[in-house]
Design brief:
Length: 83
């Protein structure tokens, strides 16, 4: 089973990656840029596997670059608040 199959697993995966980045001393700007790049890749290259991913992909595709950065930062914030 892929972490993309279930949105809760996806959030858990993102949280673990965020913990690793913070543990290595990476600053928020770096983490934010990586979240943006991952979001862009997923929206353009990976077929959504659940309703939540579908909504995120659709939002990403209609957003301008600044709004996409906001979406990426909100995903970071979401997983931070679920720890």
């Amino acid at each position: 089973m892929s972490v993309l199959d279930n949105f809760d697993q996806w959030k858990s995966f993102l949280g673990e990656r965020l913990d690793q980045a913070e543990g290595k001393g990476l600053d928020h700007n770096y983490v934010s840029e990586m979240a943006y790049r991952i979001g862009d890749y997923l929206a353009n290259e990976v077929e959504p596997r659940n309703d939540e991913e579908r909504v995120l992909a659709e939002l990403w595709k209609v957003a301008d670059e600044q709004e996409q950065h906001t979406i990426a930062n909100l995903m970071i914030k979401l997983v931070q608040h679920q720890r």
